[in-house]
Amino acid sequence: MTRRQVHLNVNILNAGVFGGSWRFPGTDPVASFTLDHYVRIARRAEEATFDAVFLADGPAIREDLRYRPFNSLEPSVVLAAVAAATRRVGLIATLSSSYNDPYDVARRFASLDQLSGGRSGWNVVTTAGTEAAANFGYDAEPEHAARYERAAEFVEVVRKLWNSWEPDALLGDKANRRFADPGKIHPAAHHGARFDVEGALNVPRSPQGEPVVVQAGASKDGRALAARVGEVIFTAAQTEDEADEYYRDIKSRAVALGRRAEDVVILPGLSTVIGATEAQAAERRELLAELVPPEYALARLASQLGVEQDALALDSPLPWHLLADPDEAGGSQTFYKIALGLARRENLTVRQLLRRLGGGAGHRIVTGTPEQIADAIIDWVDKGIADGFNLMPDVLPGGFDDFVDGVVPILRRRGVFRTEYSGTTLRDHLGLRTPDHVARRHEGAA
Amino acid sequence: MTRRQVHLNVNILNAGVFGGSWRFPGTDPVASFTLDHYVRIARRAEEATFDAVFLADGPAIREDLRYRPFNSLEPSVVLAAVAAATRRVGLIATLSSSYNDPYDVARRFASLDQLSGGRSGWNVVTTAGTEAAANFGYDAEPEHAARYERAAEFVEVVRKLWNSWEPDALLGDKANRRFADPGKIHPAAHHGARFDVEGALNVPRSPQGEPVVVQAGASKDGRALAARVGEVIFTAAQTEDEADEYYRDIKSRAVALGRRAEDVVILPGLSTVIGATEAQAAERRELLAELVPPEYALARLASQLGVEQDALALDSPLPWHLLADPDEAGGSQTFYKIALGLARRENLTVRQLLRRLGGGAGHRIVTGTPEQIADAIIDWVDKGIADGFNLMPDVLPGGFDDFVDGVVPILRRRGVFRTEYSGTTLRDHLGLRTPDHVARRHEGAA
Q1: How far apart are CA A21 and CA A121, in angstroms?
Q2: Is A256 on the interface with B (CB under 8 A)?
């Protein structure tokens, strides 16, 4: 019997997931502004038969730029460039449903899918924060529920646009002078609460039917959206219980909505700190902690928790009386829930919590030898609480090289990870079926 | 004394500028949906030391898809992929100022500029047509003047964003743990009639200072915009008089606005039909005409002129009494003016006009041997009525190969076209200076 297979994406988070990654010895601190950085990592990911490379995003500066890199280059542009330098690895880019138009988003991912031979995926995010809002003409961040309602309709429109061309609508028939068959091209004709989009899309149907839709909902609204539209779902889980609860909740929600459980691939985030020995891994982890100025770490945590910096004392517990119920908090609820859960469960001081978070978004950090990392990965997949992981190496590209060289061979030896791609599209890699074309009626259409 | 140098872009218009290009013998009719098509042409352009490759665009289907290819893949995504496959050639993509947000556009071009080492250019268009409007939630095309007012403010915001980082704001100073200097990063803090954009942009200053701004204004509003913001200006001119009038008008408008004449590079469109002999060129031209179904050509012209198809009779003159004054016409005034000028000047029947237009947007078509094409190019540049041309080969890639193999060596031999790139950025190729950083006051900024 075949063992459950592991799916792996690599998240190219600038110089690495840790706040001090850019200062790590040997790291080029500004490499993430160059194409070579992305191409180098994507080629290694392809060599290691990863499902995809992944780019997070937000259209605003939210970090304190004195201390670390930040979301910068626009992901669809970066991954288009990466597409030209790779052949098989999937390409997942984040674009906001709050600050874009559905026609443009549908078109950019359909274009990326054409150019890459069917390797594109769209990570739908609703984009927390007033900074982004202020870059798009809004005084304040749109209300949480409103962002999710918009996201749901946004994805609906995008999918209608992706279905505007029947698979055989493009002919290119020179002899019979028929370039395309307009009878097989249908307007989206979407007229909803938030969007009016006529269509049709001006890009033929995607090589993989539709680009893969990725989501990372953590809040109540977010989980509902993920279960409804997500084909790959990122999550942050520090413990088996959290992972198990999320996995079962999302899959059962999806099934309740008429989807098949296997049409949803759930990938928790996994930050790795790899050493040849346990001691070396621990030493690396120690160095990564030291590279983050403590005054910065404290200010960032205060901002993420929505409290004044004065309310946090390094050697005291969190100021629980000041913290909102996670479901009531605005902003990114993923981080909020994870951080509070971690601090409460392990009774951490602020200093200890900062160390556990590593300057990241609250994802699980595993420190150890390649064997230990492989064990951690296989354990959750075997237990059926993850379909694989969204890998966030501590330092890029070095920490990812260590994973490819050290961990991937172990996963392959144990028969849980492919040794070569069996298909050509991102859907093939993920084991997701190609969606049937959704025929549209012409109701209300021109 | 050095002769005036020729600047050349190649416009990758799907399978070529003619309506029947996709049916030309040897042409792959659906190549323009593949990355290889763009990479192949861009690499040849680079080998021939062209200034740039250029992609037109419109976010809607406007063509009758039965008969010809259409604007499809999103240009910034396509050129990002091309960036990874080339090293020197410039990359100019069209994006609409009517159906995008300034922060997103500023960011995509700044990203493309980072990835390509300073080779990006943005062709600002206002996008005529109800089809595009209906894809972005509008019942009708925004009024002509309103589109140009929006475009002017849009470019202003984009440039503020491109200037939000001082050239030395990015530090990457590991030892002193300073990633960037926030004192050198400024909000755009734009609060205008149409846009409120706080900034700063989350991309450091472009390798070429700012991406190059390209414009193609033909109407009164369009010329005003081109003279104000355009660094490269595309135009359609059928005759020396038209080219001369446009060239002098734009340069003098620019100078009146405080710009230097040499900061504006004016490139008329040039469609080429090349044959080893005059007879072969004429034969090729004949075949290209035959490949367009006449019923389609007639319907398209009627639509472009805004009249019913019944109003056009193939062997009669244009129905002048039905045609609006070009300045009053909506839609693309470039085409309208050119077509009417051509028909009136040469007293053409509808059939003759269709043949002269070749199914394109009204650009000048030169048919002949490589020597004749080179003569035509040098003539206008020597006369000071063009700084070079926006080349639109009849058939792609074949017609462009003929240009590179046949015409470029002649231009080089005559000393009017570079034999190698002297610089690395698009600005270098165009002879445009790198703009000084525009310091922003913090007025009204956070």
Answers
A1: 27
A2: no
- Are residue B151 and residue B298 in the same domain, yes or no? no
Same domain, B325 and B241: no
Residue B223 shares a structural domain with residue B272:
yes
**Are A78 and A180 within one domain?**
yes
B 209-238 → A contacts, CB under 8 A: none
The answer to ipTM > 0.90 is yes
Residue with tokens 């999103």: B74
Using a cut of 0.80, tell me whether the model's pTM lies above it: yes
Query: Are the C-beta atoms of A223 and A250 separated by less than 8 Å?
Result: yes
Using a CB–CB cutoff of 8 Å, tell me whether A445 touches chain B.
Answer: no
* Predicted confidence (pLDDT) per residue in B318-375, tens digit: 999 888 776 666 556 677 778 888 898 899 999 888 888 876 667 899 999 999 999 9
B80 and B115 Cβ atoms separated by less than 8 Å = yes
Answer whether B421 touches A (CB < 8 Å): no
Question: Which residue reads 């059939």 in tokens?
Answer: B351
Residues 6 or more apart whose CB falls under 8 angstroms from that of B409 comprise: none
Are residues A23 and B66, on separate chains, in Cβ contact within 8 Å?
Answer: no
Domain extent for A57: 7-277+364-430
Gap between the Cα atoms of B90 and B117, Å rounded: 10
- Residue A193 to residue A195: CA distance in whole angstroms: 6
Cα–Cα separations (whole angstroms), residue B115 to A55, A73, B231, B442: 15, 9, 21, 29
pLDDT confidence of residue A8:
98
Place of tokens 């007033």: A130
Q: Provide the domain count of chain A.
A: 2
Pair of tokens at residue B168:
């030395």
**Smallest Cβ distance to A179: which of B35, B39, B68?**
B68
Record: contact A69-B179, CB cut-off 8 A = yes
A251 in a structural domain: yes
Which residues 47-76 on chain B approach chain A with CB closer than 8 angstroms?
A: 58-61, 64-74, 76
Q: Does B182 contact A at CB distance below 8 Å?
A: yes
* Same domain for A17 and A109: yes
A68, A84, A178: residue with CB nearest B179 = A68
In a domain, B35, yes or no: yes
Tell whether A288 is covered by a domain. no
End-to-end alpha carbon distance in chain A: 54
Q: Is the dihedral angle over the CA atoms B2, B42, B94, B22 positive or is it negative?
A: positive
Confidence of residue A440 (pLDDT cuts 50, 70, 90): low
Same domain, yes or no: B375 and B417:
yes
Mean pLDDT of chain B: 93
Q: Is B168 on the interface with A (CB under 8 A)?
A: no
* Residue A115 at interface with chain B, using a CB cutoff of 8 Å: yes
Q: Are residues B65 and B96 in the same domain?
A: yes
Q: What are the tens digits of pLDDT across the range B230-250? A: 999 999 999 999 999 999 999
Do residues A158 and A250 both lie within one domain? yes
CATH of the domain at B116: 3.20.20.30
| Beta carbons of A179 and B73 less than 8 Å apart | no
